[in-house]
Design goal:
Layout (H helix, E strand, L loop, with lengths): L2 H5 L79 E2 H4 L13 H9 L7 H11 L4 E4 L6 H11 L10 E4 L3 H14 L8 E4 L5 H8 L5 E4 L1 H9 L10 E5 L1 H4 L5 H9 L6 E6 L4 H10 L4 E4 L9 E7 L5 H11 L4 E5 L3 H13 L4 E4 L5 H12 L5 E4 L12 E6 L6 H8 L9 E7 L4 H11 L4 E2 L20 E2 L2
Parallel strand pairs: 1-16, 2-7, 2-8, 3-5, 3-6, 4-5, 6-7, 9-14, 9-15, 10-12, 10-13, 11-12, 13-14
Helix pairs in contact: 4-5, 5-6, 8-10
InterPro entries: DEAD/DEAH_box_helicase_dom, Helicase_ATP-bd, Helicase_C-like, P-loop_NTPase, RNA-helicase_DEAD-box_CS, RNA_helicase_DEAD_Q_motif
Family: Belongs to the DEAD box helicase family. DDX6/DHH1 subfamily.
Protein name: RNA helicase
């Protein structure tokens, strides 16, 4: 993240009701700056081209879509800057396969390499060839280890552009995750000569979705309620869907969504392929698997639950000391971007206001905000327009913002599963990160219980935290594996 960008106050001309507070951004790296400094990679840039319907966009045709025999196609790729940060064995412990080993279309390989994906991660190595064979998959892998690529690559490889029907569904639990996955899908498929990708979620205009589905759509990425509504109205015709992916399957098969998922499957062809991906698999997933999957290939890359690169600390405080403690953390830590979790929407807004009053840049996001405001906050935070984001557990599922190196649990969660997903917002794709928990007297038994449940250690916070544990510039610039 460039220093210049972060030195200016973030004033976007929007009311504080939309989640973007107007506190100034303090100078990078200076005292009280919430940390900072440059990072080897920019936050993921979301560039909406012709954005329609809440994130449905198609990139303009590129000159290198047409490949002539004998061309050195790799020479013409527009590769992103190489990420030189250290990575842990969560993503480096591979069998040594290459993406080219899977006999993928060259146009798809071009999109993969231009995303900066150099080699398959362990979950991608295990998953891609099995998914290409058409077999059902039940895959369990840690947050931030490449699950989206593990299902999007085989999904796109199997799309038949001669058919103008919906051929694949990706179901996700939150609107922000739907937008993120659709953007990745669009970017990876940009050289494939016309793969049509659509994101559809609640909180947006249904009429826009209906108009969009009147045209050709090959891949739909959706939240459960909205896609079910479109199917029931006869607008989304899913009789030719050959693959359905449940991303964050444990959430989708929880009590909140499981009835919708059962109903959704009843509209699909009996021979469809089902791919389930998640970091945690409760009993509800086992029950669904027994009922709907046919001899699924099971992948479990979860010898331990927490990411190797995330260092976890707790600070013992009273409720009244929390804001003061947060202010101290901002002044002492070198934060590139941070996500701060609260347990309710009301506390999110109150804390965001406090952080702004302290003079730090701060956005907030929660489920009670209008959808267009949520989209704007998510997009701008992802593009590095603000250093700190306060949110509820809305933001724990699959959201991938590479620049986040610190997660703070302002309110400690009650469930180990929630804790696992929260701290997984830092240390993405094998990089290093920091998780700090503010623990009150009432949280003490919960802290011990979550440590035991996850088989992890949350240590007391030291007076000084080694920057090499979470700051990119203090890592070796060889991109070598961290033996953690």
């Amino acid at each position: 993240m460039s220093t210049a960008r972060m030195e200016n106050p973030v004033i976007l001309g929007l009311s504080n009701q939309n989640g973007q507070m107007r506190g100034s951004v303090k100078p990078v790296g200076g005292p009280g700056g919430g940390g900072g400094g440059s990072q080897t990679t920019q936050p993921a840039q979301v560039k909406p081209s012709s954005t329609v319907n809440n994130g449905n966009s198609q990139p303009a045709p590129t000159a290198n879509t047409i490949i002539k025999p004998g061309d050195d196609w790799k020479k013409n790729l527009k590769l992103p800057p190489k990420d030189l940060r250290m990575r842990t064995s969560d993503v480096t412990a591979t069998k040594g396969n290459e993406f080219e080993d899977y006999c993928l279309k060259r146009e798809l390989l071009m999109g993969i390499f231009e995303m900066g994906w150099e080699k398959p991660s362990p979950i991608q190595e295990e998953s891609i060839p099995i998914a290409l064979s058409g077999r059902d998959i039940l895959a369990r892998a840690k947050n931030g280890t490449g699950k989206s690529g593990a299902y999007l690559i085989p999904l796109l490889e199997r799309i038949d552009l001669k058919k103008d029907s919906i051929q694949a569904l990706v179901i996700v639990p939150t609107r922000e995750l739907a937008l993120q996955v659709s953007q990745i899908c669009i970017q990876v498929s940009k050289h494939m000569g016309g793969v049509k990708v659509m994101a559809t979620t609640g909180g947006t205009n249904l009429r826009d979705d209906i108009l969009r589905l009147d045209e050709t759509v090959h891949v739909v990425i959706a939240t459960p309620g909205r896609i079910l509504d479109l199917i029931k109205k006869g607008v989304a015709k899913v009789n030719q869907v050959q693959m359905i992916v449940l991303d964050e399957a444990d959430k989708l098969l929880s009590q909140d969504f499981v009835q919708m998922m059962e109903e959704l499957l009843s509209y699909l062809h009996k021979q469809r392929q089902i791919l389930l991906y998640s970091a945690t698999f409760p009993l509800s997933v086992q029950k669904f698997m027994n009922a709907h999957l046919q001899k699924p290939y099971e992948i479990n890359l979860m010898e331990e639950l927490t990411l190797k690169g995330v260092t976890q600390y707790y600070a013992y405080v009273t409720e009244r000391q929390k804001v003061h403690c947060l202010n101290t953390l901002f002044s002492r830590l070198q934060i590139n971007q941070s996500i701060i979790f609260c347990n309710s929407s009301q506390r999110v807004e109150l804390l965001a206001k406090k952080i702004s009053q302290l003079g730090y840049s701060c956005f907030y996001i929660h489920a009670k905000m209008r959808q267009e405001h949520r989209n704007r906050v998510f997009h701008d935070f992802r593009n590095g327009l603000c250093r700190n984001l306060v949110c509820t557990d809305l933001f724990t599922r699959g959201i991938d913002i590479q620049a986040v190196n610190v997660v703070i649990n302002f309110d400690f969660p009650k469930l180990g599963e929630t804790y696992l997903h929260r701290i997984g917002r830092s240390g993405r794709f094998g990089h290093l990160g920091l998780a700090i928990n503010l623990i009150t007297y009432d949280d003490r038994f919960n802290l011990k219980g979550i440590e035991e449940q996850l088989g992890t250690e949350i240590k007391p916070i030291p007076s000084s935290i080694d920057k090499s544990l979470y700051v990119a510039e203090y890592h070796s610039e060889s991109g070598e594996e961290v033996k953690l």
